[in-house]
Structures are given as C-alpha cells and as structure tokens.
C-alpha cells in the first residue's frame, strides 16, 4: 500500500481560525494534486488552528464557538478530499489530540497518559496505524504537543526507533508577538531526518509505502508551498536566529516600513542593530547617535565603526539644545539642576525618545527598545525614555547572553561585524560625567545569578543572603516599569513577566531569612 504523508508547519494568525484552517486545506489539496489516487495523512502541530495567542482567547464562549466552527469545516474538507488530519486542539483541560476526516466526525483520540501522549486507535484499513506508544509497534509515532521555541528547540535523536517505524514531529514555524516558534518539523525514518524550514511556514509531502503493518519506504520530501523562504539563511544559534526572525515577522505583522533605533556605542544597541539589519536589510533600519555633553569620543567612534561594518547610514544628532532649553524651562518647577542628577539623566533619555518616536511616526517605523534582562530586572531604564519602543527584542537576554550572541553573530558572519571593543567595553549609560553602570547596580553577573535562582519555582528566601534578597526585592519593586514597556521576545523558559506574576505590583514579599 502507498500513501502520502504531509507534514504541515504553519505560522498561524491568532484568532483567524477560518484562515488557519484554509492553510491546512491548501496543503491537503496540494498533496492530492500530486498523487490523486493515494490516501493522504496530514499532521499539524498544536495551535495550528488557534495560534499561540489565540489559545488564551478560547476562554470566551463566542471565540470557542468560532474555533469549533472552523474545526468542523476543516473536518468536512478533509472528508471530501479522502484525507485524515491529525492535529491538536485546545480543550478545557489542556490540549487534545484529534483526527479529522473520518465518516463518523471529528474524533478525540483515547488518552492513556496526559504527560506522554496518546494511544491512537487504528485507522480504516486504507490508512496506516498511528500511535505514540512504541510498544504497540505502529508505523507512525506522532508527537502531538510539540511547540519548539528557542530555549527548548534542541531535538533529541530518535534512539531506539524500531525498524519499519517513522517518528513524526510537527511544530509551528514563525514568530507571533512575544513567541518565536523555531519550526524545524521533522520526519525520522531509517536513520534519516527530513526537516522543514526553521522559523518559516512550510509543508512537506512524502510518498510512503507500507506492508503488513510496517513502513517500508519514506520518499524524499516535496515542498508543497510555492512561496520562497523569507530569510535566505539563519544562524545555528537558536536565540540569535529567533532575534532575527522575530524582528522580521513583527515588522511585517504590524505593517511597518522598517525600524528605528538609537546606537550608543554599547553592546545592547549593537546586537539589536545587527539583528535588525540581518532581518530587514540595512535600507530599512534607521540608526541615530543622539549625543549629549556626556557622550564620549570613544562612544562616537565605536558607533560609527559598527554602522560602517553593518552597512548602516548613521545619523549623528545632538540633544544639547533641547536639553539646555528643558532645564531652563523647567527651572520654575524644579529649580536649578546639577549636571547628571537623576532628573537631568531622565530628561536626556526622554529627549532621545522624543526624536526617535517622531521618526517612527513620520516614516511608519517601529522603534526598537534595546533594554536587556539584567537592566529590566533592576529597573535600570527611563520610562518614556530608553524604555520606549514598539518591540523589545533582547529584554529576555541577560547581559552575559547579549555578549555571547554578539560573538555568535560575528562567528556566523565570519568577521568582526560587531567590534570586539564594544563587546568588551564596560557598560555605561553616559548620562553624567564618567558614569558606569556599576556605580548604580550590583555586578551584572551577580544580578543574573541571583535572579536566575529567584525565577525558579523552588525559590526559597531562606536560602538567600540579605544582599541577594535586596536584588530580588528591587526586581519586584520595579515591576511597574516592566508592565509599561513594549512587547518583549520570549527567549527563556522563565521571563521577568513570569516573575512579576508572582511577586510584582501591589504584592508584599515576605523574605525573612
């Protein structure tokens, strides 16, 4: 017996249930056109119908009804095409594996253990059997709940895969608001892994042969989508690839012409600028060096070097006229300000945001915020200033990780696109004379060490020193800043947003040792 196996890897739009269902039908029809006579079995990942953000909206009855209507329509289309669709939909108690296209209607597959998967009933005689239970010796082992994100996208080898059996692992491909789905859906058979594109929608069809309950052949995949890849290449480093893909997809989703950002000569803006250029091309990235009386010559030279190596046109502007005018104009309310006092620092940061946001508005661009996770944890940033933006690509990266990804970018490109002097430079906001981040913050590696422990679900204040608890208390106190910032890309299993849900605004933390 021969049949066609389809691996459907979508980048769904949240809440667009009918549109997402039509994408699955398009894959079915494309496979049917290639092989009109053979049975078709399609596998789709979790959230293929709802989208990741759409899963939350299912709590509303009218949204659930719209999803169910799309599911029913998809079932009818599959039945007419004489195809079976194996997919996961969200239920009241979590994801449910289902099969569509049978004459008896959409069928929930019998669960044997929620954590590990489902035992799939045998199909009609014209289709292969499907199961996640290796002891049943099925032909197809389906992983129904996989959504690979950058922090969990490493895929294990199919160790112990029995002869005559294939492993099917569909996943989402593409980025949606704060989520970057790594794609890379795959079929394992006979020691070979056939893989879909990374961070892209894709659909692959395989010509398969089976006999006596064993899979004999899985042919080389044929791509069902005619659209070319949106990125010609992506780095192997998953988080770096996610940064690039997320900027690309976010700008497209909000229908912006490009991005704008401030380049300071520091490591954070350097990484964001490099990722943006790779995602969009230098022509769609507007870069500005907004200097003040405190901006050093070193910062100017490093910013210029970075822009030259990335192929960016760097506009150098001064905020000094506006800065001095603000100090004079505010004197009636604030009195005389000392250079570099906290109010003066925040005025500078907000003046920079004023210019960058004006460019974003005028040219339909997204302002990229360059705050990192270590700074965000300590509230080290100015609301409506350097925390302004429409998207925060690196807010879930610790300072050490920003440094590592800068080096990963250079290694990927085979040249020092991001100058090593920027990577090694001591961090400074340059909002007062001779300022260093270390003047106001604990060491970045200490912030990371303590906050990594505090982000864990087994966090116990009694295990922390008083100095360590002061970092955790500070992080909780500054949740109000994070709540007002732009959407940030999730690049770890535990974000500061998760921390804020437990210890954030209007909550008292008893941290007695």
TrEMBL record:
<dbReference type="InterPro" id="IPR014729">
    <property type="entry name" value="Rossmann-like_a/b/a_fold"/>
</dbReference>
<keyword id="KW-0520">NAD</keyword>
<dbReference type="InterPro" id="IPR022310">
    <property type="entry name" value="NAD/GMP_synthase"/>
</dbReference>
<comment type="pathway">
    <text>Cofactor biosynthesis; NAD(+) biosynthesis; NAD(+) from deamido-NAD(+) (L-Gln route): step 1/1.</text>
</comment>
<dbReference type="InterPro" id="IPR014445">
    <property type="entry name" value="Gln-dep_NAD_synthase"/>
</dbReference>
<feature type="domain" description="NAD/GMP synthase">
    <location>
        <begin position="242"/>
        <end position="454"/>
    </location>
</feature>
<comment type="similarity">
    <text>Belongs to the NAD synthetase family.</text>
</comment>
<protein>
    <recommendedName>
        <fullName>Glutamine-dependent NAD(+) synthetase</fullName>
        <ecNumber>6.3.5.1</ecNumber>
    </recommendedName>
</protein>
<keyword id="KW-0067">ATP-binding</keyword>
<keyword id="KW-0547">Nucleotide-binding</keyword>
<dbReference type="InterPro" id="IPR003694">
    <property type="entry name" value="NAD_synthase"/>
</dbReference>
<keyword id="KW-0436">Ligase</keyword>
<dbReference type="GO" id="GO:0008795">
    <property type="term" value="F:NAD+ synthase activity"/>
</dbReference>
<comment type="similarity">
    <text>In the C-terminal section; belongs to the NAD synthetase family.</text>
</comment>
<dbReference type="Pfam" id="PF02540">
    <property type="entry name" value="NAD_synthase"/>
</dbReference>
């Amino acid at each position: 017996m021969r049949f066609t196996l389809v691996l459907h890897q979508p980048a769904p739009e949240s809440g667009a249930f009918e549109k997402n269902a039509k994408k699955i039908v398009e894959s079915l029809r494309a496979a049917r056109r290639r092989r009109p006579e053979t049975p078709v079995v399609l596998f789709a990942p979790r959230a293929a119908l709802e989208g990741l953000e759409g899963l939350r909206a299912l709590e509303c009855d009218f949204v659930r009804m719209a999803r169910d209507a799309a599911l029913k329509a998809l079932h009818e289309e599959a039945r007419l095409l004489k195809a079976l669709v194996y997919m996961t939909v969200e239920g009241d108690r979590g994801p449910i594996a289902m099969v569509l296209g049978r004459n008896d209607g959409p069928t929930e597959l019998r669960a044997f253990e929620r954590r590990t998967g489902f035992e799939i009933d045998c199909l009609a005689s014209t289709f292969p059997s499907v199961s996640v239970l290796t002891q049943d010796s099925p032909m197809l082992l389906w992983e129904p709940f996989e959504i690979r994100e950058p922090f969990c996208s490493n895929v294990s080898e199919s160790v112990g895969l029995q002869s005559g059996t294939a492993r099917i692992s569909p996943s989402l491909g593409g980025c949606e608001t704060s989520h970057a789905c790594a794609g890379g859906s795959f079929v394992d058979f006979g020691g070979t892994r056939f893989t879909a594109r990374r961070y892209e929608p894709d659909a692959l069809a395989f010509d398969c042969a089976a006999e006596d309950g064993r899979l004999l052949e899985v042919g080389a995949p044929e791509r069902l989508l005619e659209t070319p890849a949106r990125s010609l290449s992506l780095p192997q480093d998953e988080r770096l690839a996610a940064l690039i893909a997320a900027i690309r997809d976010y700008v497209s989703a909000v229908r912006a012409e490009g991005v704008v950002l401030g380049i300071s000569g520091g490591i954070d803006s350097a990484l964001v600028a490099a990722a943006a250029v790779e995602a969009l091309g230098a022509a769609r990235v507007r870069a500005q060096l907004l200097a003040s009386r405190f901006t050093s010559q070193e910062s100017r030279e490093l910013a210029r070097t970075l822009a030259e190596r990335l192929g960016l046109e760097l506009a150098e502007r001064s905020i000094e006229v506006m800065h001095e005018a603000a100090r004079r104009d505010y004197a009636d309310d604030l009195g005389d300000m000392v250079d570099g006092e906290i109010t003066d620092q925040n005025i500078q940061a907000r003046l920079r945001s004023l210019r960058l946001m004006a460019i974003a508005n005028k040219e339909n661009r997204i302002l990229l915020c360059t705050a990192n996770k270590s700074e965000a944890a300590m509230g080290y940033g100015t609301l409506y200033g350097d925390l302004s933006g429409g998207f925060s690509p690196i807010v879930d990266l610790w300072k050490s990780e920003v440094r590592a990804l800068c080096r990963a970018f250079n290694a990927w490109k085979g040249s020092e696109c991001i100058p090593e002097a920027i990577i090694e430079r001591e961090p400074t906001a340059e909002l007062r004379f001779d300022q260093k981040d270390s003047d106001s913050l604990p060491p970045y590696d200490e912030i990371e060490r303590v906050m990594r422990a505090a982000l864990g679900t087994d966090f116990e204040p009694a295990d922390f020193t008083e100095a360590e608890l002061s970092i955790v208390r500070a992080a909780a106190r500054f949740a109000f800043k994070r709540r007002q910032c732009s959407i940030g890309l999730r690049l770890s299993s535990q974000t500061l947003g998760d921390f804020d849900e437990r210890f954030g605004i209007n909550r008292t933390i008893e941290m007695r040792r």
